[in-house]
Amino acid sequence: MIENIFRGGKKYWLLVSGLLVLMAAGMAAYLEQWNTGLAVTGLSRDVSWGLYIANFTFFVGVAASAVMIVIPYYLHNSKEFRRILILGEFMAVAACLVAITFILVDLGQPSRVLNIILYPSPGSIIFWDVVVLSIYLLLNIVLGWVALDAEYKEVAPPAWLKPVAIVSVVWAISIHTVTAFIYAGLAARAFWLTALLAPRFLASAFASGPALLILIALAMKKWGGFEPGDQSLDKVAKIVTYAIIITVFFLLLEIFTVFYSQEPGAMSHFQYLLFGLDNHYGLVPWIWTSILLACAAIILLVIPSMRKNQLILALACAAVFISIWIDKGLGLIVPGFIPTPLGDITEYTPTALETLITMGVWATGGLILALLLKVVLAIRQGQRG
Amino acid sequence: MNIDRRSFLKLAALGLLAVAAKPAFDLISRPSAARALEGPFAGKRLAMVVDLNACTAGDGCVDCIAACHSVHNVPDIGNTKEEIKWLWEVDYKRAFPDQENGFVSEPLLDSRVLVLCNHCDNPPCVKVCPTQATWKREDGIVMMDYHRCIGCRYCMAACPYGSRSFNWRDPRPYIDIIQQGYPTRTRGVVEKCNFCEERLSDGLQPACVEACSSGALKFGDLKPGTELYDLISSQFNLRRKAELGTRPQVYYLL
User: Fold this and answer.
1) Alpha helices (H) along B129-221
2) Are A154 and A383 in contact (CB under 8 A)?
């Protein structure tokens, strides 16, 4: 099975080598960070989390979104999801690894990371997040690989796979809820101190993850001869549609409470994010881009004739993906720190090195996914031929 | 003894389980993080009082800050982005942003307020730390273990007072004279005020209190009958963001 990653056409090797180049660039940049410290980033005493933690949060969501395929297939017996089920599971594997890597590159003392295991601290949400993420990663590796193995041997998957899948559904909800709790439990940061954070995270995850899944499926169809099945894609597109609408609705709920109540604690953060505060407008263009993309995507997705056109569907999914990456990435992390608890404003701009490291981590996830999906493609084409 | 591969593996797994059971049991049954103290601190609840009427920070006095940063090898990196500070001064509105009292007397509004770690009785930073690198001692001091900290900066996000600093780079080149009484830090770890626990165990007062010539800083046990207790129970005082439930232990006399 695995030997298939070494057999591929020109397009495959072009993709793999492109990702390897990006990974090497990211690694070189990370060496600089390793030697100098996190001073190479745009982070500061006031804004102490940034691009890395933003991406970590976002990719936990992408990982959790595999349940949007697992639930219909295993719990509702929707057979049309059979062909893309494995895409969702392998995407979760790659996204999990990306999320964990983003935590690693954010650490000031990465060589001490095992202290999280050596001195387990049940009071710390990060401890629980590491625990649930690791288990979720294992669950998806098992789910994906065992199903693929059965496909390879042309037998039915073992019966014990279904209970594992059901566990993974609960687990997916838990990884994103726990990730939300990292922020939602801090009295110091009024921007995050809302019980709506976990539902918001889940809703935006179930939009961004399946949107990425559709994009990958369409790309594999165009360049890899993969047949996802139009019916299944439209069902996933409907999931994206509902989820992005709920995401925007939840954001409006936050905005109502914050601005109608006029309670200054949380309002100053939202003011900074949406309109700028005291002549600081760092995130304003970003968040409005995010809002406009979300609105455009909703229009394209709710109209059935548009949604069923695969080019328009791809555009809408790209819009959803970018919109939520902004909203749940920098748009979520940075305003938590601006203004500071003392009322100061220190803006944050990622440095080139920081961006390069981030791209390197993305490329690592991309490579893992590309290799896994190559095996899937090889097995499916072998069966056909 | 007749043993096939299957039963050998079973036995080996059982053996491994037995070996793992002891540390696992120790882990679960471990007593809570609070560590018992002996000697001068036993049974105490340490706290600090800052008398804003006596403090001369508004006139440019930085004696306490200089003393603190010197004895603790706090580097002067030279930019606010990477700044490390244990004790510093801010204006009244920054120290007490939630005191929306409409009209505050002008001398108060213009005053400079010393701020530091509040050594909270309910410290959010301790709760969030994933490695117990920061913990609360029985006498109330919130401690830092620079050798266990992994630099995740969760405590910085959790602290409502901005009391924690991070070593974005190696701090040693930025320390004028390295004092032998306290360790320098490595890059990638968090640090903050420690109420001079290293001086207290030598029977000394905190460096800032010792350096203060105006008598604005007082430090000690906070139990009925002590000098500190009489002071804050007889005069109006504020604590920073006490409404968050952190139970801060630095009291400001107005």
Assistant:
1) 154-158, 197-200, 207-211
2) yes
Contact A346 B80 (CB under 8 A): yes
pLDDT at residue A333 tops 60 = yes
Distance CA A126, CA A122 (A): 9
Which of A193-197, A198-202, A221-225 comes out lowest in average pLDDT? A221-225
Instruction: Report angle CA B165, B169, B170 to the nearest 5 degrees.
Output: 105
CA closest to A33 among chain B residues: B169
Buried-state track A201-232, b at ≥16 Cβ within 10 A, e below 16: bbbbbbbbbbbbbbbbbbebbeebebebbeeb
Q: Do B245 and A126 touch (CB under 8 A)?
A: no
* Predicted pLDDT at A78: 85
* Partners of B46 in beta bridges: B221
> pLDDT band at residue B51, thresholds of 50, 70 and 90?
very high
Tokens read off for B54: 């006596």
Domains of chain B, residue spans? 44-253
pTM of the model: 0.91
Q: What is the pLDDT of residues B178-192, one digit of tens each?
A: 999 999 999 999 999
Q: How far is B60 from chain A (nearest CA, A)?
A: 21
Q: Each residue of A5-22: b (16+ CB within 10 Å) or e?
A: beebeeebeebbeebeeb
Q: B157 and A186 in contact (C-beta within 8 Å)?
A: yes
Answer yes or no: do A343 and B94 touch at CB < 8 A: yes
At residue A7, the pLDDT reads 84
Query: Does any CB of chain A come closer than 8 Å to the CB of residue B83?
Result: yes
Token duo for residue A175: 């990884």
The length of chain B is 254
Q: In terms of CA atoms, which chain B residue is nearest residue A184?
A: B158
Contact yes or no for B80 and A109 at CB 8 A:
no
Question: Strand, helix or coil at B73?
Answer: coil
Other beta carbons within 10 Å of A98 = 24
**Greater confidence, B21 or A344?**
A344
- Give the pairing type, strands B46-51 and B250-253: parallel
ipTM: 0.93
Give A298-312 pLDDT, tens digit per residue.
Answer: 999 999 999 999 999
User: Which residue, chain included where needed, has tokens 């069923």?
Assistant: A308
Q: Confidence class of residue B33 from pLDDT cuts 50, 70 and 90?
A: very low
How close B45 gets to chain A, by Cα (Å)? 23
In this structure, CATH architecture of domain B44-253? 2-Layer Sandwich (3.30)
Residue B162: strand, helix, or coil: coil
What domains appear along chain A, each with residue ranges and CATH number?
2-384 (1.20.1630.10)
Amino acid (one-letter) located at A109 = Q
Q: Indicate if the pLDDT at residue A384 is higher than 70.
A: no
